[in-house]
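hey team, just a heads up i'm posting the complex here instead of the shared drive bc the drive is being weird again. everything in one block, sequence lines first with there labels, then the predicted structure for the whole assembly after. its two chains so it's a bit long, scroll down
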Amino acid sequence: MVRQLKLKLSNLPISPWTLWLAFLGVLLLAALLAGVLVFWQGLWLTNLTDRVPWGLWITIDLSSIALSAGAFSLCAAVYLIGLKRYEPIARTATFVGLIGYTMAMLSLLLDIGRPDRFWHALIYWNEHSLLWEVTMCVMLYLAVLMLESMPIFARMGWLKKRYPIVSEKMGRVHHYAPYLAIAGLALSSLHQSSLGGVYGVLKARPIWYKPEMTVLFMLSAIIGGIALTLFASMLSARLTRRARINDLLVERVAHFVAWALVAYVYFRFWDAFAQHYTYDPGRTEGLELLLSGPLSFNFWVLEMLLGALVPMVMLLAPYTRRHPFWRLMALGLVVIGVIAFRWDTNMSGLLVVMPYLPGQQTVAYASYVPSLIEMVAGLGVVAYGLLAFSLGVRYLNVVNHRLATEERETVTARLPETVPA
Amino acid sequence: MSRPLGRRDFLKVTAVGATAATATRVMRRAKASDNSAAGGRRWAMVIDQSKCIGCGYCTLACQAHNDSNPEIQWNRVLVAGEVAGRTIYLPRPCMHCAKAPCVDVCPVKASYYRDDGIVMMDYDRCIGCRYCETACPYEARSFNWKEFDGPNPVVPKWGQPEVERRPRGVVEKCSFCHQRIDRGLSLGLEPGVDADATPACCVVCPTGARVFGDLNDPESEVSGLLSNNVTYRLRDDLGTEPRVYYINADPTKMEE
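-- predicted structure starts here --
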C-alpha cells in the first residue's frame, strides 16, 4: 500500500518530501496564528473553564512526555544494563525524546496563564508540590537529552565541514553516555511516575485519588515511548532510503513491548475492576464515564481493545510480530492507546463535579470540547514534532541501525590525542 | 582514593546527595498553618443558615471591594435545600483550610499560609497552571480567563475597590478581605467587631448571618457561636480543616 502511494507520488511534479513539508508548513503557520492569538487575547479563547481547567493541551503535553520515555528506558538498557546491540535504537529514541520534551514545553507555554513566568518554578520552590518536582525534572532531563543528542547533531554535514572542532567535541559527549543514562533514568523515573502522581494525590477528585496512578503512568510511558520509537523508525525506513533499520533488532524490542503490555493490562485491569465495587461518590461516576458514558469509546476501543489487547496479541504472536506491516500497525496502536489513556484520565476526573453541600449526594457533570483554536494550536505542536523528526531522518541520520559501530569508533579514536591531525 | 570515579560510585554519591538534600528541605518545611501558639490570630467565619435569606449582597460587596472581574465570584450563594417550606442558602467563600490542598499543590508557592491562617495568593508569582483549581474541593478558585479592563459594574454602589485588580492569566480567590484586616489592625481596630476591619461580606450582610473573628480569642463572637451551637464544615471528611463554619438552618429560629 505504501509502495503504491510512493509510486503515485513519484509521478507528481513535486517530490513527496516537498509536499510533506508544505503540509506541515500550513499546519505550523495556522498554529502560529492561533498561538499569537492566545498570547495576545488570553485563554478565554479556549473552551477551558474553572471546572475543566485542563484539556487538549495538557493531553498533548502528557502524551509527548510519555511517548518520549523510550529515550531513558532504552538508554538505560544499552548503557547501564549493557544491551549494546540496541544502541542504534536508543539513538533514535534519544532524538524522539528531545522532540517530545520540546513539544511538551510548547504546549505548556500555551496552556499556562502566564507563560512569561514559566521560570518561576526554578526560583520559588515548593518541594511539596508534585507539579514542581515534575517541572524541575523535566527541565533537567531536557538538558540531559540535549547532551545525549549532541553526538547526533555532531554528524550534521554542514557542522562537520564548517566547524570540525565543535563537531568533534560534540561527538565526544557520547563518551559520557552511561553517566547521562543514569541521570536520565533517575530524572525520568521520578517525573514519569509523578505525572500520574499529580493526579493521584488530589483527594478532591476521587477517581484520581489512588496510588496506582503513578505505576500506570510510568509503565504506559515506557511502553508507549519504546513503541513510538520503533514505529517511527519502521515507518521512516518504509518511506525513505535515508532511514535504515535492522528488522531483527526492532522485532526483539517489539517483543519486549508485548510483555510490558501484558504487565500494563494486568495493572490496568485490576485498577478498573477493583474500582467497580461498591458505590463511592465521584469515583463511581468517573468510572461510569469511562465504561458507559461519553468516554466509553475511548476507553473500550482506543485504550483497551486497540490500544492494549490487540497489539499485545499481535506482538506476542510470532507471525504478526515478524511481519513488518503488522508489527508496524501494532506499534502504532500502542501509541494511540497511551494517548487515549492520558486523555481519559484527565477527563474522567474533571468532568465529574463533586458536591460539597451537606447531604447532597448527586454529583454534577461538566462538559468540555476543545475549541477550534485549541485544536489548531495543538495540531501545530504535533506538526512541529513531525517536522523535527523528518528533518532528523533526512539530515541527521537519526534512524540508521548501521551507524552505531562508527560512532563507537569515534569515541575510541579519541584516546591517542597527542597524534597530530 | 586514586582510582577514577566509577559508575557505581557516581550512582552512590548522586543517590546519597539527592536524598540528603531532599530530606533537609522537607524537614525544614513549615508544618501547615497550625503554629497557633504564642497568642497569634486565627481568623474564621461562622455562617448561620437560619439567618441567610439568599439576597446575594455579600457577593456584590465582595466584587466591589476586591474589584473582581464580573465573571468571577469569590463568594457564591448556593441553594442548599428546603426546611419547613423555606429555601435554605449556603454562602460559600474560600474555606481558608488549615490543611489546604491548593497550598500543597502549587508548584511555585503562589498559594501560601499567612501567619494568621489566611490562605493567600501571590498574584505576582502565580504562573496560571490551574493545578490549584483541580485540587480545591470547594470550587473556591477562579482563573482570570479574560482581561478585566472596563469599569466595575458594582462600583460604587456596593463599595470601593481596596485592592489592585488581578492581571489576566492568574488564579484568584477570597482572601477574607486581608486588606481590611491588616489596615484595621494597624489603626487599632478589632476585626469582627469594627466594621472597617471586617470582611466586606460580613459588613454588608443585612441579617447578620455572617460573623467573623479570631478563633484564638475565647471572647470573640465566633468563639462564642462555636461553643453555643452545633456547627459543621464543608467536606470535613477530606481532612482539609476549613475555617468557615456553618450553623444548620433551624426552622424555630427563622424569622418570618
